[in-house]
Design brief:
alpha/beta; globular; seven-stranded mixed sheet; 218 residues; 2 domains; 7 strands
Length: 218
């Protein structure tokens, strides 16, 4: 079973690798949810995130769990030229993992970091995510764009799919209740008013869609 809140397809694609002999860089690690679960399964794991508070939390969790092979560093993944030499003990990762973090720089940096046969496994917003709001996330990808980025950086695509969950609501009230936690965020960028318009015209759905990909370095 994947760690709580981690996409099952993403997790399976990672565990398909021979992690016991590998070093993994977990990009956008946050509080270390993925990295801490990987640590008992791999040689070393390095989690990076630009939020110092989250990195401090992840480091404390690793210490409490006695995970000596888990290291956490404050770093902006998109600003790095590659993920090599992050620590004195980790010269080059065998795999790059990114859960709910996608960018063109991620793919480029992974290509510059892993050796031939190494992998990048990533998961993030698909353009259909919250499509009812009429405004895709600026971080969202569709399948052609993800494939193009992977292949243009020398990765063979071993998996590319969309995990989609469309919630169906019996009433306007139920639809609003399901989205109430998103109202403040959606109001700030205009999505809330588009979603209300969608509901007022009879819409009763809310789509969650994640693109999940795995590429192997040629």
């Amino acid at each position: 079973m994947p760690p709580p809140g981690v996409n099952p397809t993403f997790w399976r694609l990672l565990l398909d690798e021979d992690l016991a002999r590998q070093t993994v860089v977990d990009v956008g690690t946050g509080a270390g949810r993925v990295a801490l679960a990987l640590a008992p399964r791999c040689r070393d794991v390095v989690g990076i995130d630009r939020d110092p508070a989250l990195i401090a939390d992840a480091s404390r969790r690793a210490e409490v769990a006695g995970l000596a092979n888990a290291t956490f560093l404050v770093a902006d993944a998109d600003a790095l030229p590659h993920f090599r030499d992050l620590t004195p003990d980790v010269a080059r990762p065998d795999a790059v993992a990114a859960h709910m973090f996608l960018s063109d720089a991620l793919i480029a940096n992974a290509a510059a970091s892993v050796p031939r046969g190494g992998v990048v496994v990533c998961c993030g917003f698909h353009v259909d995510h919250w499509g009812e709001t009429g405004r895709p996330s600026r971080f969202a990808y569709d399948e052609p764009r993800m494939r193009a980025r992977l292949e243009s950086h020398g990765f063979t695509v071993e998996h590319l799919g969309v995990d989609r969950d469309v919630q169906q609501f019996p009433s306007l009230e139920a639809a609003l209740a399901a989205a109430v936690g998103l109202e403040e965020r959606w109001r700030s960028d205009g999505r809330w008013f588009r979603y209300i318009d969608f509901l007022e015209h009879g819409g009763r759905t809310l789509t969650q869609a994640l693109v999940v990909a795995k590429g192997r370095r040629q």
